[in-house]
Amino acid sequence: xxxTVWPYLALMPLAAGVFPSLEKRFQWRVFSVLPPIVWTYLxxxxxxxxxxxxxxxxxxxxxxTLTSLLLPALLFLLMVTCDLRAILxxxxxxxGVFACAMLSILLxxxxxxxxxxxxxxVEGWKMLAALxxxxxxxxxxxxxxxxxxxxxxxxLPSVLLADALCxxxxxxxxxxxxxxxPAFNRWTGADRGGHEYPRLxxxxxxxxxxxxxxxxxxxxxxxxxLGAARLARSMPTxxxxxxxxxxxxxxxxxxxxxxxxxxxxxxxxxxxxxxxxALLVAVLASQSNFHGLASAPLFILCGFITMLLHxxxxxxxxxxxxxxxxxxxxxxxxxxxxVASAPVLAATYSPVLVPIxxxxxxxxxxxxxxxxxxxxxxLSSLAPAGAG
Length: 388
Description:
The chain is mainly alpha-helical. It contains 18 helices and no strands. It has a single domain, classed as Na+/H+ antiporter like fold, CATH 1.20.1530. The mean pLDDT is 86. Keywords: Membrane, Transmembrane, Transmembrane helix. It holds the Pfam family DUF819. This is Membrane protein.
């Protein structure tokens, strides 16, 4: 049994790297159902519940320090890969489809909470706010919102499972809809109005980073995270705009600024960010238990109902504004699936849509934390009296 901090610190990166390595090496089908990050969380949670380490004051202090340091560093690295000018260049029609997809997700989350708030756990509004963050952005946004609103570790497994299962089903559906595009476009009127996709150059890659690049970005991200936390202590706070909120916001802005400088052309931020995300999830899981899994079936049902409402509302908006199926599917998956799956879907539709899918996924990453915090404010006002 681990009772001191150094064996615990050695175990966290080891656990964080196991499942991404297995996926890359063997490409097992199980990872298409539950992605490596979910397996990492469940695996480390099982180790924690099994008593592999004891929550001594020393280990608890290390967990708090790692979480507060890794989160802003991670968001900074992810923002460095975002090009706001390129995103805006995709044109108003594409951004309109993206906005409709996001609006339908947020409305669906709100409706589901109103319908199920009497049977959801006390933290139900926090769980749905975290889900809205990852379904408009990504896993990093979910972690950021979780920390800001104080979602307990025991409630997180239900959110991750609902996210993974609903996402997997939606991906399978979207990859099967290509043949229905002509009929859908006739129904919405997109075939009569015509649609031209913006011609964008494919997002260029600088190739895999070298060791020096990884170390450089890691050091820079930690410095930015520490600086953001220090500045956040001098900012005014409120019920929702906490010190953690300021830290997240300042690190995000720093990343977007660096993205417009020559420094952003140095390879490595995406690779380093992916590693930090896996490590952060492992650290969060190491503090958890299985108590929250009792609500998993109900919350997964809420996730699927949210998904169905999103699909229905997006289809109606497509008919109103004459959107075509390809842009609707890509805009939805860019938010729910992120940059890992949206470009793959786009490639099956039309090669010209691949860079658009990447840029829309990046836009979701930028907005996801803000949308999650906005939904936390909305849902908390709708929560039953006494909900924590």
